[in-house]
């Protein structure tokens, strides 16, 4: 089985690779399975529905001048994945995940949150 479980899409702030294009390219390369692992970095980036002002970074070449420094927009990410699953389920196994980053200054906060 040929698989890649470390795939970013346009839902990560470090990629502009459209989910459908990823799937089409990986099918063409003969992969059997992929898992999308777009970034969530609590303590650094905000969630889209989080109160307060959104943080922006300078856009890279080919991007708008300012890019939101935000975690995955979960509803859109999931809905897009479901559409891709419906379109490509018979050609490639698709899995949905997230890559969680934890910053040192947020570890104590989350340790308290999840402490028993």
Can you tell me about this structure?
This protein has one domain: Alpha-Beta Barrel (TIM Barrel), CATH 3.20.20.140. It contains three helices and five strands. With 116 residues, the chain is α/β, with parallel strands linked by helices. The longest helix has 15 residues, at 74-88.
Order of helices and strands: EHEEEHEH
How large is the radius of gyration?
Answer: 16 Å
Mean pLDDT: 86
How helical, in percent, are the residues?
A: 25-40%
Give the end-to-end Cα distance, rounded to a whole number of Å. Answer: 40 Å
List keywords for this structure.
116 residues, alpha/beta, TIM Barrel, three-stranded parallel beta sheet, two-stranded antiparallel ribbon, 5 strands, 31% helix, globular, hydrolase, EC 3.1.3.15
